Amino acid sequence: MLAVNPAKIPFFELRLFFLILVGLHSLVESRCHLPWTGVWLQNGVELNITHNSIGNLGNCVQKGRDLYLLTSETSRGPCYRCLITFPVHENILHYKSTQCIFEPNMSLERCSQLISADVIMHTLFRKDASVVPCPIEAPLNFTYQSSYGSCSSRTSHMHRCSQYDRLALHYQACPEVPNREAAVWQMECIGSWRSFGQSYFAARIGQRFGEQYRCFILEKSGTSGRIGESADAGCQELTHIGAATTTLHFRQDSPIHPSCEFPSSLFGNRMVRRNWESMVFGTTHRILNDTWLSVVSGRNETVWSCLRSSQITSTENPLEFTFRTFVAQGCKVGYQCLKIHQRAPHILHIAYGQISPTDDFDDCSEFSVDYRDTLVLQGSKQACPIRGKHTVPSCEVPLLTIGCTDKNSMELVRDCKYPQQDEFTCVSHYKNADNDFIIVRDALSRQLICMTYISSRINLLRVYDRVSCEAESVNGSPPSLALNFTSTEGCTLTASFLYFSNSSPSHRYMIIPFLFVYLFKFSGVVRLIL
């Protein structure tokens, strides 16, 4: 680059150069770059904010701190709007805006005169905002006062759901408020802030008819306090708690803590945690000492806390346990009995009792079973039983091939007219009553499937989808497929010779027959020929 000595530049040219620099600096300063890009919601209506525009409010032409001058084209000519923002949280944005101004010489100085304190405040909520911790602790009980009246004769309550960042508010119906019915609302906080000495937070709240956004104001003293809710998503009136549409008077409750542990064989150790997979629901189960989690897509679906445990003394099933638990299933909480039979180190059969909202039972030795499930330790495999090619006279190809390509492999043809094979991996097999149970994993869908095989009188294979793989469940469920085989052929495995060469001068190419194996199955006798 050519160096220039300023001392040799004429004075008027140097002055012009600095004027251009100042003009360019002013132009850069006047350009807008909006920092809250994304899709926002204003009273349920989407508003898209880019780096230089705010939805239908206009394009930014000039800015100064939190004050912006926007413009948009109309039939009357350029429309100017003055907008001032109050960003209280990354998910919450307050702003005030003027109406359209048709003045050709609009400026930021003029905007500062037009926006006054009585201009309506608007609130934007970031769409799909990430959840943040709520500034209130659950569980708690409360009474409430709304536009329908005051409900103080019944106690409502709030608790955490299985997803710890979600709260459930159970509103009780009261005789003194005839127009208000009992309802359950779910709440997820998306932001909290302080303004003029007041504590606020915003949340998504939902019921059966959909999801809404609200602002809340919080007053807390020790273990009690008040929560005020805005009338709608505008949050305009919520300047103090007396202006809230609904007010909750709350008091903190004592949380329920676990008081026992699940068997260590179920959760492994600190270094290696065991994950189990549900055959019925496909959920992942993680057992952490005193807490049992059922997880879907990384989020808790059900959480059990161990309250009391006992081992069932039985010679037939030595690894049976019962547990009395506190459970959160979604946003439904209560007490539940569990019965666990560890069929094998990698197989659990579980019977679940009904969820009771009150702690009105202490013994889980006998309880009414609500549903059953089988859990399989993730990563488990076991050699398949009933090895061979199972056929019927009406089909040219074997309908079932087990352990022929690999000891863990199974190929199943569901329809002889369309002999396309479904591939499975054997996970476990065990005998119960008159059935041989086989658990396999579908190679395509990765779903766990239960099969039963009866070989005492007939060769009958039944396939069950989304059924617990034990006698109580399969006896009451219709199979998705039943195959009756008339004959079974053995597998033939052939291993070739092993050839290798040695480059040593004292050796020529050497060919050594390593292993040549034929397996024949005839009249139940397996012959090995070397």
Automatic annotation (TrEMBL):
This is Uncharacterized protein. Residues 132-250 form the DUF7042 domain. Residues 257-368 form the DUF7043 domain. The chain crosses the membrane at residues 509-529. The keyword Transmembrane applies. It comes from Caenorhabditis auriculariae. Residues 32-111 form the DUF7044 domain. Residues 1-30 form the signal peptide. InterPro entries: DUF7042 (IPR055470), DUF7043 (IPR055471), DUF7044 (IPR055472). Keywords: Membrane, Signal, Transmembrane, Transmembrane helix.
